[in-house]
């Protein structure tokens, strides 16, 4: 079933309509360091924008603390692109259903953000989608500690965009941060949200 594109999110649909640029963005961008060629693991995430009457929100998850990659961090639902997947869209939809129980019947894929390279050697394709409200989530409690929604207006407000820094492997590294209540959104997730913000500003 096709989900109606409301006036509130119509500009967003045009902003994400073009195809992603391979490895256009990365965890290294704020530091101005040149990326060296290295093997990367293809991955995909869903950027789920829920079309509530009172205004769109973005569905995010918090990973459980025991996971090997990015424990405890805020993320979009998603993961590695498996051989059985027919590309990043299929992988993002499959992982979203596995992680939070949100099925394709509630989802309309509308475009992409630029591919994003992480320091942990993933090349992520962010798949942007509109989600019809009224769904029920079923969390995979091994991977997902919590799922929550953040108003899109809050995420796109430049007053909420921060840049923090930390030492990693002896080097100073900077990264984007968006704080929403007790939730600390940073790293690749915040970087992809900044790509969404820039696209909308330019559209």
Strand content: 25-35%
Total number of helical segments?
Answer: 4
How would you name the CATH homologous superfamily of the domain at 10-151? Nucleoside Triphosphate Pyrophosphohydrolase
CATH architecture of the domain at 10-151: Alpha-Beta Complex
SSE class: alpha+beta
Radius of gyration: 16 Å
What's the number of extended β-strand segments? 12
Q: How is the CATH topology of the domain at 10-151 named? A: Nucleoside Triphosphate Pyrophosphohydrolase
Q: Approximately how much helix is present in the residues? A: 10-25%
* End-to-end C-alpha gap: 27 Å
CATH class of the domain at 10-151: Alpha Beta
Q: What does the main sheet amount to?
A: 9 strands, mixed
Structure characterization notes:
This protein is α+β, with helices and mostly antiparallel strands. The chain has four helices and twelve strands. It has helices at residues 10-15, 88-100, 152-156, 187-202; strands spanning 25-26, 41-50, 57-63, 74-75, 78-80, 107-112, 116-117, 122-131, 144-151, 162-168, 171-180, 183-186. The strands form two sheets. Strands 1, 2, 3, 4, 5, 6, 7, 8 and 9 form a nine-stranded mixed beta sheet that branches. The chain has a three-stranded antiparallel beta sheet with strand order 10-11-12. The longest helix is centred in the C-terminal third of the chain and has 16 residues, at 187-202. The protein starts with 9 loop residues before the first helix and ends with a helix. The model is unreliable at 1-5 (pLDDT under 50).
